[in-house]
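Long-time lurker. I teach an intro course on protein structure, and each term I like to show students one example going from raw sequence to a predicted 3D structure in token notation. This year I'd like something fresh instead of my usual example. Would anyone be willing to generate the tokens for the chain below so I can use it in lecture? Attribution to the forum is fine with me.
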Amino acid sequence: MEMTHRHAQAVLERDFLSLRHHILNVAAALDRIGRGESAEQVQGDPRMSKIQEALSVLAEPDAGRAERVQIVFSREYDPQWQQ
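-- Reply from a regular --
Happy to contribute to a lecture. Here you go:
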């Protein structure tokens, strides 16, 4: 099956408000973390590192960001996972 590519302007028009909403939610959550008690302690938390890494991926101009962000949050494959 061949994928159809939509015109970029149409995609932006359709998704802009949703993207804006999600970006504002991320910013607000990071602000809440930053204002929290002992906020400096979370800077060493591996989850914060993952969030920072994912935000860096989002800032890159190339395609494939969704896959790369998914990889950031994924565990490495363990061939022994069934045991």
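Some talking points for your students: Residues 44-75 form one domain. The longest helix spans residues 8-35.
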